[in-house]
Amino acid sequence: MKIGNIDLGEKPVFLAPMEDVTDPSFRYICKKWGADMMYTEFVSSDGLVHDSEKSFAKFKTSDEEAPIGIQIYGSIPEAMVDAARLADRAQEIVGGHGADVIDINFGCPVSKIAKRGAGSGMLREPDKLVAITKAIVEAVPDKPVTVKTRLGYDENSLIIVDLAERLQDVGIQALTIHGRTRCQMYKGEADWTLIGKVKDNPRMKIPIIGNGDITDPVKAKEAFDRYGVDGIMIARATYGHPWIFKEIKHYLATGEILPSLSVVDRVTLAKEHLSKSLEFKGNRVGILEMRRHLSCYFKGLPDFKETRMRLVTLNDPAELYSTLDYVAQRWGGYELTQTHSVYETN
Question: Under 8 Å CB-to-CB from 127, ≥6 apart: which residues?
Fold first, then answer.
């Protein structure tokens, strides 16, 4: 599969862009465990236009993460075009690797985004959505532009088959489809049949990436085999489980399910993740933003409530590392299985 000139190999597995989750430390870990392509947290076009330090900080990527996309969102055409041009210059502006791809978020269902007409809220105005995409493609002619979106705004407007053609016609070079509507949010089951219809459409020539409810290697293989997608994207199933990329790729290659990661190995991974978070964000922010991950790495351990509370309330790095060492000592012989994994939360 290729996005422009970027060769991602056969059946690539993507890390979905997730606000407050896919920061540099988590991307580092996911890349190490086999993610073929990743994206930044989504960046507000309004924030960029108004010179928001927080927005520009999300532009920073590293060579080790490549290939990587910068994802932008918004509803004002002029601001979106300006944001795309700034993302194209990310390396010049903030240093680091920059963007290999500019991705447009037309999929976020969160009310504060969608009700302003951005994210999946744009699905209520497909003509405007296509016009913005066309303008961005023309504004960054040397960079592949991709789109992430949903099936439609609600069950009465499942427009994705037609919309996919229109987006291809204005020049995007890959399309990621989450198999839910905006109104579904993350409830119910993702409908992959419409993703399959987009892929089966003889007019479609660009890669189609499927997203939604891929929580284990078996479901990943089914997505490729049953619906014919070119790639798959993993989102919530990566919480506390970034080694899912290795599991999926191993299963696709061999048909074998890898053993679940041991508690001791999870502690080693959590410590590495914490170290990277502190390196990138400093002690205060680095610890705060690690809490969502530390609460998931050890899901399923018995009598863990008190220790979990320590992991999500401590503010001193040394105490956190000491608590993680205690986890390895106390539960090192306990076998976590798929039943005890974060799959249950997705």
Answer: none
